[in-house]
Write a structure and sequence with these properties.
Helix content is 25%, strand content 26%. By secondary structure, the protein is α/β, with parallel strands linked by helices. The strands form 3 sheets. Strands 3, 4, 5, 6, 7, 8, 14 and 15 form an 8-stranded mixed beta sheet that branches. It has a 5-stranded parallel beta sheet with strand order 10-9-11-12-13. A two-stranded antiparallel sheet has the order 1-2. It is globular, with a radius of gyration of 19 Å. The chain starts with a strand and ends with a strand. The structure holds zinc ion (2 copies). Residues 72-73, 76, 78-79, 87, 89 line the site of one zinc ion.
């Protein structure tokens, strides 16, 4: 079976692996989205680290599914405090070998209803992350920093709950995409900001009203220091959110059919490195690999 794994230098490599064996259900992968967190691991992570977690697949009984790659315990102090992605049990990877493979084993599968179109199952996990994080964002006027694929999901989720959404992106074409979804592009202050692009953190901090909230939704680049001066002077709150929980996966499955999903660039696994380059250059809103 073919799968993309990390080699000794942490670089992605298409290799032949033995069939994944139990535990877990056998899933034939139909598509897997490339996430910023996958790209982040390239050149850094050790061989064997999970690649690919935005998955649509098919069970042996023919059911179309998405799979949960991590699951919190739900009962520890961190889970009960709402920080499920920091739960000890959440570290454990529940799929093997990963989403960029012909087949995988998964302990937690969720059936996709017919309302979720072919290959749209790859959006369930990213959307689940947005839905979970959105609970930390006070309602009102919200700035979305970065109008890539995640930014577009954010604009829609916030607008659907009645927020006034302002979007920023250095790229005119990406900003136009967010405006088509109802985002404004004025320069007035906002009550909260969602940062989906690390480079925008300081600009977002300066635009927040006193007492405002900044949500850190993507890994900050190492070379982007955050100025805390505005946090001090304007008594701002900075909150982080990473990953999702089963309840938000279920909510996302319900919501996917109602959203305008960003355009995807579909490539075969053989062209994995090319897809990564495309992502890094910003040449595609979303890269999805099919075995
Ligand atoms: Zn992801
Ligand atoms: Zn827990």
């Amino acid at each position: 079976m073919r799968a993309v794994v990390l080699d000794a230098d942490g670089q992605p490599e298409l290799v032949d692996l033995p069939e994944p064996i139990a535990p877990g259900r056998l899933v034939r992968v139909r598509a897997c989205g490339l996430c910023g967190s996958d790209v982040e691991k390239l050149g850094r992570a050790a061989p064997g680290v999970l690649l690919g977690h935005e998955i649509e697949g098919e069970l042996e009984d023919g059911n179309r599914v998405t799979v949960l790659h991590r699951v919190p315990c739900g009962v520890c102090a961190r889970c009960l405090a709402g920080h499920e992605s920091t739960c000890e049990q959440f570290r454990e990877v529940r799929i093997a070998p990963g989403g960029f493979a012909e087949r995988l084993r998964a302990s937690h599968c969720l059936v996709l209803p017919g309302t979720v179109s072919e290959l749209d199952g790859v959006w369930v996990e990213p959307l689940a992350c947005v839905l979970r994080a959105a609970e930390l964002v006070p309602r009102g006027r919200v700035l979305v920093v970065g109008c890539g694929a995640m930014g577009r999901l954010w604009v829609q989720v916030l607008r659907r709950r009645g927020d006034e959404v302002v979007a920023v992106d250095p790229r005119a074409d990406r900003l136009a995409g967010a405006r088509d979804l109802g985002a404004l592009s004025d320069c007035d202050p906002v009550g909260s900001a969602v940062v989906t692009a690390a480079a925008g953190t300081n600009a977002a901090l300066r635009r927040l009203d006193p007492g405002g909230t900044l949500l850190v939704f993507s890994a900050p680049a190492d070379d982007v220091p955050t100025s805390l001066d505005a946090v001090y002077r304007n008594e701002l709150r900075i909150v982080g959110s990473r990953s999702a929980t089963p309840a938000y996966f279920r909510a996302a499955i319900e919501l996917v059919p109602a959203l305008v999903l960003p355009e995807v660039t579909v490539l075969p696994l053989e062209r994995f490195r090319e897809g990564v380059d495309l992502y890094r250059r910003g040449g595609a809103l979303k890269v999805v690999f099919v075995p």
